[in-house]
Design brief:
With about 140 residues, this protein is of the alpha+beta class. It folds into two domains: about 1-70, no CATH class; about 80-130, no CATH class. It is built from four helices and five strands, in the order ββββααβαα. The chain has helices at about 35-40, 50-60, 70-85, 115-130; strands at about 1-5, 10-15, 20-25, 30-35, 60-65. The strands form two sheets. Strands 2-3-4 form a three-stranded antiparallel beta sheet. The chain has a two-stranded antiparallel sheet with strand order 1-5.
Length: about 140
Protein backbone atom coordinates (compact mmCIF):
# COMPACT_ATOMS: atom_id res chain seq x y z
CA UNK A 1 0.00 0.00 0.00
CA UNK A 2 0.96 3.67 0.02
CA UNK A 3 1.34 6.69 2.27
CA UNK A 4 1.64 10.41 1.70
CA UNK A 5 5.20 11.62 1.34
CA UNK A 6 6.68 13.35 4.39
CA UNK A 7 8.10 15.90 1.98
CA UNK A 8 4.83 17.23 0.64
CA UNK A 9 3.61 20.82 0.64
CA UNK A 10 -0.14 21.38 0.34
CA UNK A 11 -1.22 24.83 -0.82
CA UNK A 12 -4.20 26.83 0.23
CA UNK A 13 -7.14 26.60 -2.14
CA UNK A 14 -6.33 27.51 -5.74
CA UNK A 15 -10.01 27.17 -6.67
CA UNK A 16 -13.16 26.37 -4.78
CA UNK A 17 -12.33 22.65 -4.55
CA UNK A 18 -8.71 22.16 -5.62
CA UNK A 19 -5.22 22.53 -4.22
CA UNK A 20 -1.70 22.35 -5.45
CA UNK A 21 0.48 19.58 -3.99
CA UNK A 22 4.25 19.99 -4.29
CA UNK A 23 6.42 16.92 -3.73
CA UNK A 24 9.67 18.53 -2.63
CA UNK A 25 11.73 15.34 -2.94
CA UNK A 26 10.89 14.99 -6.61
CA UNK A 27 10.48 18.69 -7.34
CA UNK A 28 7.12 17.95 -8.96
CA UNK A 29 3.63 19.29 -8.42
CA UNK A 30 0.08 18.25 -9.16
CA UNK A 31 -3.30 19.95 -8.91
CA UNK A 32 -5.72 17.79 -6.94
CA UNK A 33 -9.37 17.95 -5.97
CA UNK A 34 -10.12 18.28 -2.28
CA UNK A 35 -12.16 15.07 -2.40
CA UNK A 36 -9.05 13.14 -3.50
CA UNK A 37 -6.89 14.91 -0.93
CA UNK A 38 -9.35 13.89 1.78
CA UNK A 39 -9.05 10.24 0.69
CA UNK A 40 -5.24 10.48 0.64
CA UNK A 41 -5.07 12.01 4.09
CA UNK A 42 -7.42 9.33 5.43
CA UNK A 43 -5.23 6.60 3.91
CA UNK A 44 -8.10 5.37 1.72
CA UNK A 45 -5.97 4.83 -1.40
CA UNK A 46 -8.11 1.92 -2.60
CA UNK A 47 -10.98 4.36 -3.18
CA UNK A 48 -8.95 6.43 -5.67
CA UNK A 49 -9.05 5.38 -9.33
CA UNK A 50 -5.75 4.33 -10.93
CA UNK A 51 -5.90 7.17 -13.47
CA UNK A 52 -5.56 9.58 -10.52
CA UNK A 53 -3.33 7.42 -8.30
CA UNK A 54 -0.54 6.60 -10.78
CA UNK A 55 0.48 10.25 -11.45
CA UNK A 56 0.55 10.85 -7.69
CA UNK A 57 3.00 7.98 -7.30
CA UNK A 58 5.08 9.06 -10.31
CA UNK A 59 5.37 12.60 -8.95
CA UNK A 60 6.35 11.47 -5.44
CA UNK A 61 3.17 12.67 -3.74
CA UNK A 62 2.60 9.15 -2.46
CA UNK A 63 5.28 6.58 -1.72
CA UNK A 64 5.30 2.90 -0.75
CA UNK A 65 4.06 2.41 2.81
CA UNK A 66 7.36 0.87 3.95
CA UNK A 67 9.54 3.59 2.37
CA UNK A 68 11.95 5.39 4.68
CA UNK A 69 12.17 8.63 2.77
CA UNK A 70 14.75 10.19 5.06
CA UNK A 71 17.11 7.22 4.62
CA UNK A 72 16.49 7.30 0.87
CA UNK A 73 17.47 10.98 0.76
CA UNK A 74 20.60 10.37 2.83
CA UNK A 75 21.63 7.43 0.63
CA UNK A 76 21.01 9.46 -2.52
CA UNK A 77 23.08 12.39 -1.21
CA UNK A 78 25.95 10.16 -0.04
CA UNK A 79 26.05 8.43 -3.43
CA UNK A 80 26.02 11.78 -5.22
CA UNK A 81 28.92 13.01 -3.08
CA UNK A 82 30.86 9.78 -3.60
CA UNK A 83 30.31 9.74 -7.35
CA UNK A 84 30.79 13.46 -7.90
CA UNK A 85 33.63 14.64 -10.08
CA UNK A 86 33.15 18.21 -8.94
CA UNK A 87 34.74 19.98 -6.00
CA UNK A 88 32.81 22.88 -4.54
CA UNK A 89 34.31 25.32 -2.09
CA UNK A 90 33.31 28.69 -0.73
CA UNK A 91 36.11 31.07 0.11
CA UNK A 92 35.48 34.16 2.20
CA UNK A 93 38.59 36.32 1.74
CA UNK A 94 37.33 39.13 3.97
CA UNK A 95 35.43 39.49 7.23
CA UNK A 96 34.02 42.81 6.05
CA UNK A 97 30.42 41.93 5.24
CA UNK A 98 28.84 44.93 3.57
CA UNK A 99 25.29 44.03 4.60
CA UNK A 100 25.51 44.76 8.35
CA UNK A 101 22.11 43.27 9.16
CA UNK A 102 20.86 44.30 12.61
CA UNK A 103 20.10 40.70 13.64
CA UNK A 104 23.51 39.28 12.70
CA UNK A 105 25.92 38.25 15.42
CA UNK A 106 28.95 38.66 13.17
CA UNK A 107 31.52 41.24 14.19
CA UNK A 108 32.14 43.47 11.19
CA UNK A 109 35.84 44.19 11.00
CA UNK A 110 37.73 45.45 7.98
CA UNK A 111 40.05 42.49 7.97
CA UNK A 112 41.31 40.59 4.94
CA UNK A 113 42.63 37.06 4.71
CA UNK A 114 46.26 36.96 5.83
CA UNK A 115 49.00 35.56 3.61
CA UNK A 116 49.33 32.56 5.93
CA UNK A 117 45.61 31.80 5.72
CA UNK A 118 45.66 32.26 1.91
CA UNK A 119 48.55 29.77 1.63
CA UNK A 120 46.73 27.30 3.89
CA UNK A 121 43.61 27.70 1.75
CA UNK A 122 45.54 26.89 -1.43
CA UNK A 123 47.13 23.87 0.30
CA UNK A 124 43.71 22.62 1.41
CA UNK A 125 42.27 22.97 -2.09
CA UNK A 126 45.27 21.18 -3.56
CA UNK A 127 44.92 18.30 -1.09
CA UNK A 128 41.18 18.02 -1.79
CA UNK A 129 41.83 17.89 -5.53
CA UNK A 130 44.35 15.09 -5.01
CA UNK A 131 41.86 12.98 -3.00
CA UNK A 132 39.15 12.80 -5.64
CA UNK A 133 38.80 12.10 -9.30
CA UNK A 134 37.95 15.77 -9.69
CA UNK A 135 37.29 17.16 -13.15
CA UNK A 136 35.29 20.27 -12.28
Amino acid sequence: MYKLSRYLVISDYISSNARLLYATRAGKYVVIKDSVLDLLQAGRFDEIDLKTLIPLFERGVIVPEDADEFEDILRHNKNAIRDSQALGLIIQPTANCQLGCHYCGQVHAKRNMSGRVAEATVARITSKLALKNTRH
